Amino acid sequence: MSSIALPLLLVLSSTAFTAAKSIGVCYGVNGDNLPSKQEVINLYKSNGIGGIHIYSPDEETLQALRGSNIEVLLDVATDTIPSLTHTASAKDWVNKFVVSYSPDVNFKYIVVGNEISPTDQWALYILPAMQNIQQAISAANLEGQIKVPTAIDISLVKNSYPPGNGAFTDDASGFIKPIVTFLSNNGAPLLAKIYPYFSYTENQQSIPLAYALFTQQGTNDMGYQNVFDAMLDSMYAALEKIGAPTLQIVVSETGWPSGGYQGASVGNATTYYKNLINHVKGGTPKRPFAPIETYLSAMFDENMESGMEFVRHFGLFNADKSPKYGISFNSSHSVEQRIMCIFSS
Ligand SMILES: *[C@@H]1O[C@H](CO)[C@@H](O)[C@H](O)[C@H]1NC(C)=O
Ligand SMILES: *[C@@H]1O[C@H](CO)[C@@H](O)[C@H](O)[C@H]1NC(C)=O
């Protein structure tokens, strides 16, 4: 190996490392037949799942995560948000749920507000609560490791096709602008829920199944091969229009159901997840080459989820812990191997 080649190898390996860690799984608990918290975390470990999204600071889960090195995306529970606008309460929250478990638990994000709409009663509290949590994280010297984002959904973006026309709705702009400034100032990403499945079921005339499942041959006239990229890029375009052209988006939820509605089947879900896991190693047309950090939703079918039948079929595993699909969550390790092959050939 020549000395000139060495820096290149280092750059490539660090990219591969990021890619290897880009898949996490959301741990929803709306079921009365799910395994114990410890068993669930063991299932993450035995499947090599490197990240977990938890929806509230459940101490049994945090306890089970000690020593696991699994990256944790932790939501503050929605009904806690107003209290976090008080500095002392935010500090207590961080001490109780973060500092007491750190560094045994590998926290990556503390998420203030999950899919809060700008017209929601909670909207006014989001930014002050984020600021207080950030302050408490900094006071604990954890600001280098733990970022404090919020998670939004795609309904905040209008004109989402072609993706370049994406813009935040008038309601959303006032809400999201100061939040985006806060995120940029703290080097934090914006979190987004991206569900090509809903795009497909809601717009079957314009969105073919193949375009939602990453199986379309070639790109369309706008240069897109799949809905996932188009959705993400419409949000990137919206961020550019409010002066945040470099903010990163992390996909905090995406998934495909195995039954209960149109397009929902084990076959289609397998196709979606396999292609998605492979796809997120690279970027979107607007953000090429950078891996897309992505959390799959969800770990289990949740029999107590309310709504249409398909919402109870989003699990990657059955309640008895058997896998529903033949997919490998850490297959991205092969990226490193592929890069080594390219390098040595
Ligand atoms: C994925 O992780 C599991 C459990 O850690 C391990 O047995 C398996 O070899 C890994 N697969 C790859 C492709 O790295
Ligand atoms: C995917 O969904 C479509 C539409 O419901 C269905 O016709 C097709 O059989 C499904 N494919 C698989 C492999 O399950």
From TrEMBL:
GO terms for molecular function: glucan endo-1,3-beta-D-glucosidase activity. This is glucan endo-1,3-beta-D-glucosidase. Its EC number is 3.2.1.39. One of its GO terms (biological process) is carbohydrate metabolic process. Coiled coil: none annotated. Pfam families: Glyco_hydro_17 (PF00332). Residues 1-20 form the signal peptide. It comes from the Eukaryota. PROSITE patterns: GLYCOSYL_HYDROL_F17 (PS00587). Keywords: Glycosidase, Hydrolase, Signal. Gene3D superfamilies: Glycosidases. The lineage of its organism: Eukaryota, Viridiplantae, Streptophyta, Embryophyta, Tracheophyta.
